[in-house]
Amino acid sequence: MPVYEYRCPKCGERFERFVRSISAQAEVVCPRCGNTEVEKTVSLFAGLTGGSRTSSGASCAPGRSL
Fold first, then answer.
1. Which domain, by its residues, includes 15?
2. CATH number of the domain to which 15 belongs
């Protein structure tokens, strides 16, 4: 089941929901104010791709002894 992130334009609440199917997205309701007209947002987790996150450039691969 995918997890989608939503934002309520009425109260500004940001929240996540497991969604079983595309048709189930119509059932998403803001947990704070009950608004049913919520907006799907871009997930920051899904946007982080590629590149190394290490600052030293070190690798987990075994190195050669000198």
1. 3-44
2. 2.20.28
Tokens 């691969």, residue? 61
Q: How confident is the model at residue 55 (pLDDT cuts 50, 70, 90)?
A: very low
Domain count, the chain: 1
Residue pointed to by tokens 């998403």: 28
Residue 58 forms part of a structural domain: no
Dist CA 22 CA 60 (whole Å)? 40
pLDDT tier for residue 14 given thresholds of 50, 70 and 90: very high
**Summary mean pLDDT of the chain:** 75
